[in-house]
What does this fold into?
Amino acid sequence: MPQLTKEELNTFLPHAGAMRLIDRVESWDDTTIHCCTRSHHDSANPLRHGTRLEAVTGLEYAAQAMGVHVGLLNRTRSTDGLIGYVGGLRNVVLGVDRLDDCPAELTIDATRLFEGDNSFMYQFAISSGGRDVMTGRASIFLKHVQS
It folds into this structure.
């Protein structure tokens, strides 16, 4: 499928400004998505704690990639009033202490393992310059938000 730029991601993520962490979607299909970003080098990254961007913040990068994938797959379905939540994490392994120490861009890969009515399970992997940064599984749930 075609690549998506940061501006085109507006449709699929509720995040705005610097909190939109993914720079682009390189590729995607019915089960996988491959994203890239350099936002871990941004001194204005809102997930920083002082000058550090801890590796655990990779969970938000993975969640945004999964959210974009769910949005891409559901473009023909109305998602008004729906918001995605991470419901559970399993087998999370950190390969680094900090994301800001990764010199190359981050690549975020996610593969959908299961899809229910409003739930999804993904395997995800984040790497930088060929080095494993984080791997794990996440359950995503869509919930109707009351206005």
